[in-house]
Amino acid sequence: MSGIYAGVDLGGTNIKAVIARSSGEILAESNTPTLAHEGPQKVLDRIAAIVEELVRQVGHPPQAVGMGCPGLVDVEKGITRFFPNLPTQWRDVPVAAVLGQKLGCPVRLLNDVRCATLGEQSFGQGRDVATMVFFAVGTGIGGGVIVDGKLRLGPLGAAGELGHQTVLPDGPLCGCGNHGCLEALASATAIAAEGLRLMRGGMASALYQRIQGDANQITPRVMAEVAGLDPAVRDVLVRAARWLGIGVANAVTILHPELVVLGGGVAEIGDLLLDEVRAVVRKRVGMFPTDDVRMERSQLGEQAGVLGAIAWAAKGI
Amino acid sequence: MSGIYAGVDLGGTNIKAVIARSSGEILAESNTPTLAHEGPQKVLDRIAAIVEELVRQVGHPPQAVGMGCPGLVDVEKGITRFFPNLPTQWRDVPVAAVLGQKLGCPVRLLNDVRCATLGEQSFGQGRDVATMVFFAVGTGIGGGVIVDGKLRLGPLGAAGELGHQTVLPDGPLCGCGNHGCLEALASATAIAAEGLRLMRGGMASALYQRIQGDANQITPRVMAEVAGLDPAVRDVLVRAARWLGIGVANAVTILHPELVVLGGGVAEIGDLLLDEVRAVVRKRVGMFPTDDVRMERSQLGEQAGVLGAIAWAAKGI
What we know:
Number of strands of chain A: 12
Radius of gyration of chain A: 20 Å
Number of helices of chain A: 10
Shape of chain A: globular
Largest interface: A-B, 47 and 47 residues
Strand order of the largest sheet of chain A: 3-2-1-4-7
Largest sheet of chain A: 5 strands, mixed
Helix content of chain A: 25-40%
Oligomer: homodimer
Structural class of chain A: alpha/beta
């Protein structure tokens, strides 16, 4: 047994891949456009070629491949179920079998954010904790829950969807079909939409100047850059952080974890976000003291997914 | 080893106690007023006397005593922390040591709703499931979470407070200090308060007649009895059930349990409640199909607590 694994993070835009030891030490890595419009077969060919190239670089075949997928997968069978954000038809594609045949080793699928949760547990903020929750706050809000050291999967590997708690029953429509999910209120998409409203409404002149009025350039990070100049933009970030704080407070109230990790692009806004989340948790968790609940930004950042895929490959099922 | 245990459920109004086998077979039981105003020492004397009397009836000493407490306890140390609903000072009372000395066997404390959760898992709806959540909907809304067969405690035995999720950020004040907790919107107390509003506002003539205008008699059960005659009363019950459905949907989204059990007095309203909860879960859990999530009323009813105390006594820590 070589102790060497491959990790793949299949995203809507890019395929990230690494070869790494089970310790998390990365031996080779790559980042390639997904070109998802070409459909599952071409994308799987591409993934196989990427892994083979990394294996050539390392000179060592992996014992197994772990792969984070942007949606619902049948973990046991290694079959895709539903990828809401990838174009073309990904329903019931036997990815583990197809890739396993090409690469000559077992391939293990998992939802991408559950992968990132596992990454953060294995190699990031969660190395010394038994129970933690992970919020991936990006285009959407994904999540993952680890109880007593074990990733909570549920029958479909779909447990841990912390971004799809209802926190405002009559709130905006969410991509999942529900109204008032945390994701609909605090994701990068929701924040950017508010940024657009302010900019077009003449309430964010610094934002307008920063991106020359180009709505396509509005992101939470750009908004954070001008927050010191545009009080209304700052207010949007604070309000999103408060929603996120409510989501975190609910997870804390239900699970009393030792650790809450915030990952994804929005977490990179910085202290403003984390300070507000901590304040909301202090205020809203009334049933027990929360001094012992650590709340931190992801330590692995964009690497959480591929490193989690390594941990998943090494774990077996 | 006799396999015989004592279970105690300390409530604000009554002390329930049983002697039972670890199989859940009850050998003797009693129900006695708590008289909580007399303070911890007298109440603990009373509990010891009750257990001793039951032991006399059975003719067999228990191997251990499990005790459900109405608040926060230090599970490891067997010390009370905070009982919000009992008068007099219950902070830091070494209940396990005091009762253990009197009764000559180990005494194990646990929050009362976590006890009921354990009861329902061990002897009720949850006998064949690994992962379940329990909502105790009464004066307040308590909860409990079981993951992979194990009751989730957290460092203070306080995890599982499903009634203290924020589901309406600017909602009514909750006893825990937060605003918009599920408890503040869907507990028996919240339902009765709405009943009062309707009755005094002239919108609930059948309710008025049923209890001769006596506000002290308003309960969810009485309201359920007149719901067929007073549409506004029925609307209050449906709305409370919808809030409860949101709380259940959130727990399902986060944990994807096999089973959700609704206990406590409000659960006895009947099908109206459960039907609405199921409908809301179907509607609001958008990330995965929920056909495999059973939602049921408690099978043990008021016995869930003492039977859970038996299970807790038998488990050890």
